[in-house]
Amino acid sequence: MASPKIDVIVRNAATGTGEGPYWDNESKTLYHIDLVAGDAHRWNSLTNENEVISVSDRHLTFLIPRKSGGFIAGKKQSLIHFDWENPSEQTILAEVEEGMNTRWNDGKCDTSGRLWAGTMCVEIGTVVPVGGLGSLYSMDLDGTVKKHADKFSISNGLAWSLDDTVMYFADSMHRCVYAFDYDKNTGLVTNQRVSVKYPDDKLYGVPDGMCSDTEGKLWVACYDGDRIVRFDPETGKIIQELQVPVKNPTSCCFGGENQDELFITSSRTGYTDEELRTKDPLAGSVFKVTGLGFKGPENIKFHG
User: Is there a smaller number of Cβ atoms within 10 Å at the N or the C end of the chain?
Assistant: First the structure.
């Protein structure tokens, strides 16, 4: 691995759980969210300014630009549309799992512009009281929502193989990354199996958000593991590790002018003031890693 350099681009951006980094190469902007606070953030790489808007009182879980304008986002159990200039004016596109104590978690679009997102049980503090309530959904370009798989505990990161024949999906509580056979044309997944199983020791924490690179490898944020790990999804083996200056990195994505910078979000949830002051002062910050020697595919907007 090259000698990477890690810079803080937004210090303590999240008061709760920073998540969902999305690099928009067109505007040279990194979108990211504070899941707990319900805030959307927009960091301008040209001005180094970070703008914050309130979208929800709680549980804004992902944010993806729409090709037609505005954004699609996971808000509690709803998929919503809003415009940055008027975030309080929202249109509900779909709702799932009515009557259940669940919420959306990570979401991402495939190369067809189709949305994929998973659900999980609403946590109490930092504890997920009930496992197995999470499901994996997609939203097609015509707005049709489909449920593809269930019995997950903490639905998390999504990624695809270079040839679009395999989709990867993490479950933090099960401490693994699943692989599915994926049909880009129909948007269907089959043949669920384990791609990456985290080691039994707690050194690596649990898998959280992730992305892929142009060599087809997975970069997975290790929550409670202070690192980003590069896995070979075919063998499940660790190829490289990147230590980060926070205990709880939550997600990552490639971006920058040449798609060779790695952006990382992190969590501030569950810390005491003393721990934040003495043990993890950068918790909740957003980082940019340069000099990795790898590139990633561009993030895809929602085409619906």
Answer: N
Active-site residue identified among 208, 226, 260, 280: 208
In DSSP notation, 77-144 reads TEEEEEETTEEEEEEEEEE-STTSSEEEEEEEE-TTS-EEEEEEEPPBTTB----S-EEEEEE-TTS-
Kindly report the backbone phi and psi dihedral angles of residue 138, in degrees, each rounded to the nearest multiple of 5, phi listed first: -135, 155
Q: What is the C-alpha separation between 267 and 222, in angstroms, rounded?
A: 11
Does the global pTM surpass 0.90? yes
Q: If phi over 0 gives left and psi between -120 and 50 gives alpha, with beta otherwise, what is residue 54?
A: beta
Active site residue 208: yes
- Give the pLDDT band (50/70/90) at residue 1: very low
